[in-house]
């Protein structure tokens, strides 16, 4: 008897391939942020929260949502932390925009050096304004490459000396563009997640900026994904140890574990778009996939938190419910509204009339 443990890496890759085919065959590709606004918004909140939390930011998801949606800082965190999230959110919004109204790519290439620098500049400017890196010179601000050598990492990997950075990062951008060409020709030769893992690790090994390399690296990875027609991925803060361990394996040329982590993240967000279109009425899906003009994601989340909508909150902080439960919630609201109208009408009929009474 085979145990029902964690699916193998090969199974994860097979499931991902199937989800990608389903996305294109059933839905005609990834819905744009305009067509699936609530799902994209939910991913945006989660990515900004978890990607900055991987670097030590302490804002909770609710604080991130309020900051990004309303521009209000709630809680009692430092200005630096709010600005970290705000900058990251601005950069992620630009990245997601490439799935809606792609800007003209640099000669049709998957990525350009100027776009890489733009992402870092956008993500880091807000926090740099209040808390610049203590060792940075005037030439090492957001969007500019470092002019310092980086000490060897605790795991032993040493980024290249700073004079080598411009050439190394241009070579890395060329590798990204080559992967794009191979994918167009269906000539990649090995699993896409492991190729993405190699590229992501390669960027972090170069460490082109004096600060913000982790955030910039994850944002650039998501730019590559949305331009290839896939949703951006989220690496959750609870995955930090596994993520760092996978990066260490990748430093030594083993991209399997990092590729698997990326594949699982790709599948998770692909399902956000696919499942609502193919799931049965009782299948649990994220609230973002159930929101519509009648019930916003905020309204559904409030109903779930108050116990009025049958829903569960997962370990990732995401509330999930089903179309069946939303239909039941809608019917209950209509019944409650009808009862309220009937009660109000009865009260009106029983109230003494102000006309025709005694003078």
From TrEMBL:
Gene3D superfamilies: Fido-like domain. Residues 324-335 have a biased composition (Basic and acidic residues). SUPFAM superfamilies: Fic-like. The record marks 55 as: Important for autoinhibition of adenylyltransferase activity. Residues 323-359 are annotated as: Disordered. Keywords: ATP-binding, Nucleotide-binding. ATP binds at residues 211-218. It comes from the Bacteria. InterPro entries: Fido (IPR003812), Fido-like_dom_sf (IPR036597), Fido_containing (IPR040198). The active site is at 207. The keyword Secreted does not apply. Residues 111-267 form the Fido domain. Pfam families: Fic. One of its GO terms (molecular function) is ATP binding. This is Fic/DOC family protein. It comes from Sinosporangium album.
């Amino acid at each position: 008897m085979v145990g029902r443990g964690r699916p193998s890496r090969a199974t994860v890759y097979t499931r991902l391939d199937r989800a990608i085919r389903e996305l294109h065959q059933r839905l005609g590709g990834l819905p744009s942020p305009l067509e699936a606004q609530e799902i994209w918004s939910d991913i945006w909140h989660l990515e900004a929260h978890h990607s900055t939390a991987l670097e030590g930011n302490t804002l909770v998801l609710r604080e991130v949502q309020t900051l990004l949606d309303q521009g209000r800082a709630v809680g009692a965190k430092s200005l630096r932390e709010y600005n970290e999230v705000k900058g990251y959110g601005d950069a992620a919004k630009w990245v997601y925009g490439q799935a809606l109204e792609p800007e003209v790519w640099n000669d049709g290439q998957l990525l350009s050096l100027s776009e890489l620098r733009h992402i870092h500049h956008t993500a880091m400017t807000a926090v740099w304004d209040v808390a610049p890196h203590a060792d940075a010179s005037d030439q090492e601000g957001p969007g500019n490459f470092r002019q310092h050598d980086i000490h060897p990492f605790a795991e032993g990997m040493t980024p290249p000396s700073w004079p080598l950075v411009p050439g190394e990062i241009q070579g890395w951008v060329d590798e990204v563009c080559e992967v794009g060409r191979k994918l167009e020709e269906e000539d990649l030769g090995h699993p896409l997640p492991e190729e993405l893992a190699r590229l992501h690790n390669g960027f972090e090994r170069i460490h082109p900026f004096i600060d913000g390399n982790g955030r910039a690296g994850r944002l650039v990875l998501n730019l590559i994904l949305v331009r290839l027609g896939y949703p951006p991925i989220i690496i959750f803060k609870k995955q930090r140890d596994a993520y760092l361990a996978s990066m260490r394996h990748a430093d030594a040329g083993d991209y399997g574990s990092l590729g698997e982590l990326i594949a699982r993240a790709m599948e998770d967000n692909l399902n956000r778009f696919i499942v609502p279109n193919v799931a049965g009425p009782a299948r649990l899906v994220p609230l973002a996939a159930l929101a519509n003009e009648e019930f916003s994601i905020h309204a559904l989340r409030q109903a779930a938190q108050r116990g009025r909508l049958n829903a569960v909150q997962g370990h990732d902080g995401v509330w999930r419910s089903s179309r069946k439960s939303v239909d039941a919630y809608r019917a209950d609201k209509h019944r409650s509204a009808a009862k309220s109208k009937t009660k109000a009408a009865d009260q009106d009929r029983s109230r003494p009339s102000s006309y025709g009474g005694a003078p």
